[in-house]
Specification:
Layout (H helix, E strand, L loop, with lengths): L4 E2 L6 E6 L4 H4 L17 H17 L3 E4 H11 L1 H11 L2 H4 L4 H9 L3 H10 L1 E2 H8 L9 H5 L5 E3 L12 E4 L2 E4 L8 H13 L1 H4 L4 E4 L26 E5 L2 E6 L5 H14 L4 E6 L13 E5 L2 E4 L1 H4 L3 E7 L6 E5 L3 H9 L5 E4 L4 H9 L6 E4 L2 E5 L3 H9 L3 E5 L16 E5 L3
């Protein structure tokens, strides 16, 4: 069996990457939670208990769980190149000004792997930087040092690291390190990128980089200000559904430019023969495709009808010698999924309840389930109507609490980055 690779959305889940709530979520305040893409502040200790229960559910079904923070610590401990790369990416003239680049990079490179990893995810204030350095690095030759108070962030917190689905996506025998849409999430891709490039576990494995962190040869980072935002893609829109087919949402946070880049690389490899593109309306309530659609079984899906019915669906296939792609308009989103899954009929389980309850449960990630194996999914307990509908359709629903975890607009699908999953 390969060490890594994701060959469906519902096959047996064997390895998964998650991130336990940490310092980054403790940084949320009423003043900054909007900027950091959360709808409210979070009771972090309770969120940790909810997340621990979520992980226990997966382990009960034999899933091997890896923590982002642990892998980051191990990467920094194993590779001086990784440490130098990440410090050069997060500390630049654009982030701290010209005068502070060298002293801050030097200070970060002297920290232990545990402390550096904690602050790469959790953020670092000017006051913390002074304390860790044991001296005032900022002096009087830096405008930022003079004007910023001790609570100003030198490294921004990354609370959305909780949603490991988005920064990287395993697609069949390879991985895409994703360029994220919002500035608040850009550095997440750097953290996961150095893990995949430099952690011993991944260096010893055989897989492809569909979208690598670095250009070939490692001379420079592939992501820059021209990439982020203008051509972005996030894992909540990416679903390798099997049969050499990839489903992607063209959404609030994933652009057509990046879909084409990914499709070209996958077609060239032969791993994928068809990319189904779901063009969605752009809205915070359904920022990614997986907030309105996830797979439950070989022939079963859950949907939020109000959004799904508005989707325009296209299939991209490799073109001929004159055209790189051949693109066709599909009659209906669900019909394209049925055809790709090679089943006679799809069991479609809509968000439960009346119109008002459906809107509430979609907002609370009722359709954002994660399959542990065919017909077995994890879902938030509070979505009672949708969970009942799935059970009536023969799906086994493992419930978890999500009163705090859900405040960032993400359920079990968002909080998991599958590393190894069986095919159909």
């Amino acid at each position: 069996m390969p060490q890594f690779g994701v060959h469906s959305e519902i096959g047996k889940l064997r390895k998964v990457l998650v991130h336990r709530p940490d310092l980054s979520l403790q940084r949320l305040t009423p003043a900054n939670h909007d900027e950091l893409l959360f709808d409210d502040v979070i009771w972090v200790q309770h969120a940790q208990r909810e997340h621990d229960a979520f992980v226990d559910r997966m382990r009960d079904w034999g899933v091997q769980v890896f923590y982002l923070s642990d892998l980051l610590v191990e990467t920094l401990a194993a590779s001086a190149v990784a440490r130098q790369l990440i410090t050069s990416l997060v500390i630049t003239e654009n982030t701290v000004g010209t005068a502070l680049v060298q002293p801050l990079r030097q200070m970060l490179n002297q920290l232990s792997p545990e402390i550096l990893a904690r602050h790469l995810i959790g953020g670092m204030t000017k006051g913390e930087a002074k304390q860790l350095a044991g001296k005032d690095l900022f002096g009087h030759n830096s405008l930022l040092g003079i004007t910023a108070d001790d609570n100003a962030f030198i490294l921004p917190p990354l609370p959305n690291s909780l949603f490991t689905r988005d920064s990287s996506s395993w697609i069949y025998h390879g991985v895409s390190i994703n360029s994220m849409y919002h500035q608040a999430r850009h550095l997440e891709s750097y953290n996961v990128g150095i893990i995949y490039h430099f952690h011993p576990m991944f260096q010893e494995a055989e897989f492809s980089f569909w979208m690598p962190l670095m250009e070939e040869g490692g001379e420079r980072c592939r992501f820059d200000t021209e990439t982020f935002g203008r051509a972005s893609i996030e894992g909540g829109d990416i679903m390798p559904i099997g049969n050499k087919t990839l489903l992607i949402g063209l959404s609030q946070r994933t652009t057509g430019q990046m879909i084409e880049q990914l499709a070209a690389r996958l077609f060239a490899s032969g791993e994928v023969e068809r990319v189904i593109v779901a063009q969605m309306t752009r809205d915070r309530a359904h920022m990614h495709l997986d907030t309105v659609f996830t797979m439950l079984d070989y022939d079963a899906v859950t949907i939020y009808p109000r959004v799904i019915e508005q989707i325009r669906t296209y299939s991209i296939r490799p073109g001929d010698h004159e055209n790189q792609f051949h693109i066709t308009l599909e009659k209906h989103f669900l019909e394209a999924i049925r055809d790709a899954m090679r089943v006679r009929k799809l069991r479609v389980i809509p968000t439960g309840g009346d119109e008002y309850q459906q809107a509430r449960e979609q907002w609370d990630d009722g359709n954002n389930t994660v399959a542990i194996e065919p017909g077995v999914v994890i879902a938030y307990r509070k979505n009672t109507f949708t969970n009942q509908a799935m059970r009536r359709a023969g799906i086994r629903v493992l419930e978890i609490d999500g009163f705090e975890l859900g405040r960032g607009r993400g359920g079990g699908h968002c909080m998991t980055c599958p590393l190894l999953r069986d095919g159909l």
